[in-house]
Amino acid sequence: METKTVAVFVGDDASPEVMVPTVALLEDLQLGIEFVEPSIGSDAKKQTGSLFPAAAKAQIDAADATFFGSTSGDSTPTLFYLRWGKQTYANVRPCRYLPGFRSPLAQPNGIDFIVLRENLEDLYLGLEGDTEDLAGLNLYSRHARANLADLGTGKYAIKAITEKGSERVIRHAFDLARKRDGKRKVTVTCKYNMLAVSDGLFLQIGKQIAAENPDIEFEHFIIDDFLCRMISRPHDLDVVVMPNLYGDIMSDGAAGLIGGIGLAPSGCYGVDYAYFESAHGTAPDIAGKNVINPTATILSAAMLLEYLTYTDAAEALANAVAQVYAAGVTLTPDQGGRASTSDFFAAVRAAL
To answer: Which residues in the chain are classed under CATH 3.40.718.10?
Structure first.
């Protein structure tokens, strides 16, 4: 059996309480995966003087994928490398309701779609500064009908939508829709009415790629209209692709439809690398209490296994989680239960 290597970062605050047992679950499956734990963050800085030492970078590069726990600011250089360094441009965030999830909707059964977030550009390039620095450019706002310099002292942020970035993530959306073989539909959404040039380019490229894929249904909505539709008719959606900022916001909203951010897995894919993480943060308010919901982390691990082509094991792990929720006996407090994190893991292990 071929050995695959996965770099693991267990994260901060409550994150290790779900990451460490999830890795143990994967080890129990005996798939031939070698897990390595590069040293990063504050511990690495004490030892090497760097938050992201060269040895950690080398271990990431040598691994087949990375399993990343929720982290604080000290791990930001590592996360940025996994995104921009490894060019993981497609952030796949599934929104799938499982019976037993504590959804606020009256009829959540059958919700199963993906928010596909472009992961590398848009406002997340961090191109910000003082508006005074742009005064010499004589930038004129056709909406405000004034030059930027006339609006007063303030800050700016540049939103960049590129042809390359848009095309590759939208093609990924069509590939996903075809692979899922469900509704076989791609929805493009952004603010192309107000941002006719930048978001307009994203939509234009979406239409071009849709014309090349007539077997996949295509639709597009302005982002605010889409949000209304996502709440009122989530069952109509399949694969929804959007620029970075919208995707960050809408994916968390989508998690709310099915029962909360603790249920939301995530995978970030590039041409030849991917990393996987839950969508939630480090949850410092419940650290050490053994009550954090491991669902997002376990389902992210299932996405990891699928990426590594352990398809049967990925399905078995996801099915085990579904069985625990269907039984409704061993649920964590955020889902209306009284079980601990450890209890939930025990139930998943029993289902496996």
So the answer is: 1-88+270-352
